[in-house]
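User: Hey, quick favor. My workstation is busy. Could you predict this chain's structure for me?
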Amino acid sequence: MKLAIAEGIREMGGEVRTGIPVESIIISNGVAKGVRTKEGDFFADTIVSNADIKHTVTDLVGEAQLDKKYASRIKAVEYSYSAFVL
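Assistant: No problem, here it is.
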């Protein structure tokens, strides 16, 4: 499935990079604009995180970048089991 998603992104003119851990998501004027890595900053029109919402908000975006009420709600989220069924 991973290859199918990557292939679809490439077919639409996108670029897929793997094996580069993201240190943070770059926010400008309240909008995600790119990601910061040890290899440099990468910018795109659309930023997608495959991390869970808590990690994305608290570690990659940073609570200071978000509305306090929203950040508080995300911090209160409890993990649960999930699964995909094909």
